[in-house]
Amino acid sequence: MLVTTVLALAFLLAWSGRTPNSDLFMSLAGGRDVVDGKLGQADDWSFLTQGDPNRVWINQSWLTHWALYRLWGVAGPTGMNVARVAIMVAWVGGVLIWLRRRRISWAAVLTASAALLLVCRYHMILRGNIVTLAAVPWLLWMLERQRTGPMHWAWAITALLIVWGQAHGGYVYGWGVVLLWLVIFGAAQFLRGQWRWATVVLGLALAVVLTVTISPFGLRAITQSLAMAGKSEWRTVREWWPLVENWSTPFAALRTAFQTGEVRRALLAMWAGQETGPFLLMLSGIGLLVLLVLLRRLLSAGDSGSAGTKERNIAPFLFDVTLTAVTIAMAVEGRRFVPLAATVLTLALAQALDQLLRRPHSDSRSRVGATGYGLSGLSSAALLLLVYPMVALGYSQRHPFLPRQNLFERQVMANAFADDAGWFLRANGIKGNVFHDYGQEGYLRWTVPGCKVYCGGRAQQIYTEADRKKQLLFSNPKITDPRVISGVNELLRGWNVRIVLLPASTMWELTLALIESGEWLAIYFDGDFSVLVNPIDEFERFGPALWQRSGVAIVDPNQNLQEAGTQVRADQVAYPDEQVWLQSYALYLASPRLSGGEPASEEERMQLEAQKFRVRFNAVREAQSRQPNALLYVLLSRMAEKFPSAQQAVQGYFQSELERMKTLSIAVPRGAEVLWCRHYLARLIEARLRRTGDSANADHMKSQADAAADLLEQLGRWWQM
Fold first, then answer.
1. Are residues 449 and 584 in the same domain?
2. Which of 383, 541, 598, 664 is 20 to 30 A from 359, comparing alpha carbons?
3. Residues 697 and 715 both lie in one domain
4. Which residue in 449, 343, 499, 459 sits closest to 23, CA to CA?
């Protein structure tokens, strides 16, 4: 009962994992393409591929995408929540029956499955890859049935491989597993004159033929799975990073943690690594147990007995070790394979736990049973403690890092997608080529009709290495260099990009550099994302709208767009709320294009510039008075650098704002922004004090900035688990 409780709690914690899932929106848009008859046709998503009939999206997950799109049409976001739970149940269920088929005790099976759920907590997202995760344990179970049971299981394996072949590109791994099984078990059976393996060969051949025949991409459906090999540019995508860049780093970090007494912080940091931390902890935790299993298997294989007995011991051992080693090597090379490796490694963990329950001592069963109950009780208590930060806090409507959200939004979106910015584009009929960050491709395609997207989650399935190489230019740390930004603008002009949509948290420097280049005008900023437009002449109506309140229509973004359109005049621009308009106005004014008439003299020019700065200063102050945003303080600081006479006023404003931030509550939705404001304000004040030689007060400001950063870290440690 206690072990079952451990598994149930682990399932709850795995379900509660919140990971922004751009692939889900790519899947929904891809499913819509399947229904519209666009599968295998020339790509019409991106301006990079437009007009090239040879650029076809090799969508190996087309069947999964079609199913998710149909489910969305029936049940919407609720259907996505249910589908995720259903696939998780199928995955865990497959692991349970596979491990039980290997004659492992229920206690060991349930405990190992609970560990697997915890390790893969951040990987349980609804996308094509989860089909492969769910299929692997079922395939291994069927192969075990084929080895020890009726021969007809070969046809169940064939059926699984055929469906898998249209559901996700991971089917190639499934083929590899079957081939490995044939090499090890088939060879042993052949030497004994048995032909059980022959049905598996026929089934695999049939699956390969039908996969190629059914797929609209033919042989490219197979070759595409190997496209990542040797592609250095695509290895820069996060999920294709190596598991650990430098293997000495985690051990050095732990050694330092033990020396400084901060072991708990180091372990939390490893857990926060998402793809790497939990998996490394799993490997470290079961290392000795796996050695015990290998030793017992070798001893068993060396016992005297018939050839059949030795084959039954040696062949499974070779299969398990080879499959585990290959899959772990895949995970070491690319992080996307971590959950796959963890799934396969669950067998070794379960066998090790089972060995502990079967120690060859007369009194071992009762003694180990008591130990097992004790460990289960401690595990249950530990997992219960984790329920509070991971579930209660993680889904709280008072989350200091996130806005109020429903279950689907919190689990799938967080604040990583341009949902309000996308609504702004739709509501105002803004269309054209959109430059955006890597994670927005699928979301914009799904939610903003009429926009052509940039390189994103479809990656090597449609884009080239040259496309990715150019994309990396936008992450240049010297992006503010005039020569670099000039090259960026040249690229954007060459692509005929009219809209730039960028996340503020990671691409703020690029946003400001584009605005300051004079070629782009900011028309939207909500604190998370900004929208810039070019050529500016095509968006003249935004000027009057942003300059005066009468040109703005505040429209509820939850309203139907057709109904909302009746509330907006032809000369107005729709914004989701007053605060977003004020923030957009403040960023809009940062453009040097808004210069007004040509001054007659240098004195008039200085007066005009001073007047413009006062307008910008007042716009920032009004926006910040309602809902402060740390990045607008950075914007104001940059604008003030050109006006020495304004430094004292800006410094006084920053100091008064810092004191005001200390009075604001952080126990509200997105309340952590207050701490970010405190951190940035203290840093900005510190920089100004150091320029004037006031080191004592500058050090005091630095300590305040560090204190705010520490509070953010402590807050995130609980709320972001």
1. yes
2. 383
3. yes
4. 459
